[in-house]
Write a structure and sequence with these properties.
heterodimer, A: about 425 residues, alpha/beta, Rossmann fold, six-stranded mixed sheet, four-stranded parallel sheet, about 45% helix, globular, B: about 300 residues, mainly alpha, two-stranded antiparallel sheet, 12 helices
């Protein structure tokens, strides 16, 4: 009995500790969605804790910047209400957990009755959420998931601001092909493909393989391997890359895996004529973690702060004013445009009826978009399809757009010295 | 694969084994004496990583000095955790549900504290050693892994020395072997348990500080290492320091070689196939199941039995 009461006392202390620390962590997030009044409720489900916390935080910031600007301008004109309504954000942190992400998307669509939801960074979390929009007939936009599988199921309420990952693979291969045409790389070089074991990775490989098949003689894939997300040790896998005697190392990885793998790549003394980690490369966390170890890495991105558009430069200025730092890579920009195209579609619908907003989203064209091509629209499957940019890290923390030519801010360095 | 490739693989495995052993040994000490499966181990690893980062970043101390300083600091911290929470658990010869829940809950608390203090940004320790390696022709050894291996090996030797030649070590061993007999001959089980928990936590903090020099870390850091620590201590025999070293070596060898060596496969005739790299994490799970079924006392127990029979 004595032991039991002692245990109870210990558990009580633990519970108190959990409540104190938990409350400190949860209250600010919940409080953001606690506003009330005649407003348009937009649900935001993003990871701001866990493995995808950093990109999720950036996407949240992009959305909140757009909301602030729209609300500062008086809100969105809703014809059938006869007035402008402010946007009320209801935010939930999914903790980078797929099951939680799906549950929170369901909650925000049902209990909170959000007019629309923006969520789903990254592919795995986006896939989990993507089953909810049609079930609750609520428009859902993702600015962080681009795997083909999400948009090939015939969903009607699902919209993707990111161009398909397969196109990312095709663009990367096309860019490498252009380096061959310029004489910077030789024909027939061997490629080692090492990608994460997700639909994201599969699409990337398919894109690369598709281009190589259509352009025989340019490259040969000598190794194609997958790895688990959130890996800790890639030394065995990198040894396999070494053994393949490849000339080009192409990976498709999320931020933390990119940092860990590139660190072990350098430690293993590997060297290739070209290195890429898919859509990761210029992130400041990677630069901090690896210093000059990220120099010359190529990345195919949906957006870059080097884009010479006036609206992109204005976005950077506004972002800096709100967060006291510039946007890190592409994450905030795509989320910012997701919110803007949603606002435009609500205004065009003139009502808060979700099916009408969905119809407007399907035919929306966001002119003055930050993204390459400056116009954001969705294809018949709900996914955008604008071209990718290829950027390369250069010494001294510099990053240049190296492809396509008309957007280039510098020449590609290949082979890597 | 050439002979050099095999040597590179072997070196990778050995270095990995050193890291694995360092992070698993703290869990073994606590389980051995107290029969508590320390699910907060990952939280201690995470705090160790941040401890090293803060000293490195604020005071520009060498990361290995930070790791060394983690030993006494986390020893005291571990004893405090024992005094605050663990000592209230009912005594048992086997792991109890209450201890599992308590340590799991405490891990969640530590993670939340990590989130509050450091946020979700990934931190890492960058030194000139981080991305450099020692090279002999085609053979390449990462310098930082080499240093971490040496530190981990030294810590295991030190622990073995403490186990064998100190009063405290002998008390711990006697409690591991037979807690009732140990108490009859005058071993203070409460005091020894508190010191053991401190020692286990100290080694977890130390390992976390070492791991911080190798990997980027966030408040979630440590979870995947914790799983491997389970496999290692089950393989090693749950209560043995040398068993931990052996378990770590087996796991590291299997993880590294399993995806690099071909094995025969029958599909319309015999062919050689490679295990896809995405199956590498499954190696730990398979090994855990096999060890529990076939070697319940671990490899160390098996060797001990063979030795006695001989």
């Amino acid at each position: 009995m004595k032991n039991l009461s002692q245990l109870r006392a210990a558990l009580c202390r633990l519970v108190a500790l959990v409540i104190v620390t938990g409350a400190l962590g949860v209250v600010p997030a919940a409080a953001q969605g606690a506003s009330s009044g005649d407003a348009i409720t937009v649900g935001v489900v993003m990871p701001i804790t866990g493995r995808e916390a950093k990109p999720g935080q950036y996407q949240k910031e992009g959305i909140e910047l757009a909301i602030k600007q729209i609300n500062d301008a008086g809100g969105i004109m809703v014809k059938d209400k006869g007035k402008k309504l402010l946007i009320k954000e209801v935010f939930y942190d999914d903790g980078s957990d797929s099951a939680k992400s799906a549950a929170l998307a369901e909650r925000v669509m049902s209990s909170d009755n959000a007019t629309a939801v923006i969520g789903g960074y990254s592919t795995a979390l986006g896939e989990a959420e993507s089953v909810m929009p049609d079930r609750y007939q609520t428009p859902w936009l993702t600015a962080g998931a681009a795997a083909t599988s999400i948009f090939s199921r015939g969903y009607k309420y699902t919209f993707g601001v990111l161009s398909p990952i397969k196109l990312l693979g095709v663009t990367t291969a096309e860019f490498l092909g252009s380096l061959v045409d310029q004489g910077k790389l030789k024909k027939g070089l061997k490629i080692a493909l090492v990608v994460e074991n997700t639909d994201h990775g599969v699409d990337y490989v398919n894109g690369i393989q598709e281009w190589i098949k259509a352009h025989p003689g340019y490259f040969e894939v000598v190794l194609s391997e997958k790895f688990e997300l959130g890996g800790t040790d890639f030394s065995g896998l990198l040894q396999k890359v070494k053994t393949s005697r490849a000339d080009i190392f192409l990976s498709d990885a999320h931020l933390q895996d990119y940092i860990t793998m590139q660190r072990q790549y350098l430690q293993a003394g590997l060297h290739h004529q070209v290195i890429s980690y898919g859509a990761r490369g210029p992130e400041s966390d990677a630069r901090k973690a690896l210093g000059a170890g990220t120099d010359y890495i190529l990345a195919a991105l949906w957006w870059s702060d080097k884009l010479p558009y006036a609206q992109a430069q204005k976005f950077i200025t506004d972002y800096k004013a709100m967060y006291n730092r510039g946007p890190d890579s592409w994450y905030a920009a795509t989320a910012y445009d997701a919110m803007r195209i949603l606002a435009q579609s609500i205004e065009a619908a003139g009502t808060l009826k979700k099916d009408k907003i969905r119809d407007q989203l399907a035919k929306a064209q966001l002119k003055g978009s930050l993204l390459p091509g400056q116009v954001l629209s969705f294809g018949p499957n709900g996914q955008a399809g604008y071209p990718f940019l290829v950027v390369q890290n250069k010494p001294g923390d510099k990053t240049d757009i190296v492809y396509p030519k008309d957007a280039a801010t510098g020449a590609a360095v290949a082979p890597i010295p | 694969m050439t002979a050099v490739d095999y040597i590179n693989l072997l070196i990778s495995s050995l270095l990995l084994a050193g890291i694995y052993a360092a992070m698993a040994v703290g869990m073994t000490v606590i389980y051995g004496v107290m029969k508590i499966v320390n699910l907060a181990h990952a939280g201690f690893l995470m705090l160790g990583a941040y401890f090293a980062y803060e000293l490195f970043d604020r005071f520009h101390l060498h990361p290995m000095l930070c790791a060394a300083l983690a030993l006494p600091v986390f020893f005291v911290f571990g004893m405090a955790v024992h005094w605050l929470l663990v000592r209230w658990l009912p005594k048992s010869d086997t792991p109890t549900l209450a201890s599992l829940l308590l340590m799991f809950g405490f891990w969640q608390v530590l993670q939340n504290i990590g989130n509050l203090v450091w946020g979700t940004q990934a931190y890492s320790i960058l030194t000139p050693l981080t991305i450099s390696s020692v090279r002999w022709g085609e053979i390449s050894v990462p310098k930082v892994s080499l240093v971490v291996f040496a530190a981990a090996a030294a810590s295991l030797v030190l622990l073995r020395f403490v186990f064998n030649y100190s009063w405290f070590g002998r008390s711990m061993r006697s409690l591991i072997q037979n807690p009732y007999a140990a108490q009859i001959v005058g071993v203070d089980d409460r005091r020894t348990a508190m010191l053991s928990f401190g020692l286990g936590t100290a080694f977890a903090g130390f390992a976390g500080a070492l791991l911080a020099t190798l990997f980027p870390f966030t408040p979630d850091f440590g979870a995947s290492f914790q799983l491997r620590a389970f496999v290692i201590i089950v393989l090693g025999g749950l209560e043995s320091v040398s068993g931990v070293a052996l378990g770590a070596l087996i796991l590291a060898l299997l993880e590294t070689f399993s995806i690099n060596l071909p094995f025969p496969w029958y599909s319309h005739g015999w062919t050689k196939v490679y295990l896809p790299a995405s199956y590498q994490p499954a190696v730990s799970f398979v090994l855990l199941v096999v060890a529990l079924l076939v070697l319940p006392r671990g490899v160390a127990g098996l060797l001990e039995r063979k030795w006695r029979t001989a």
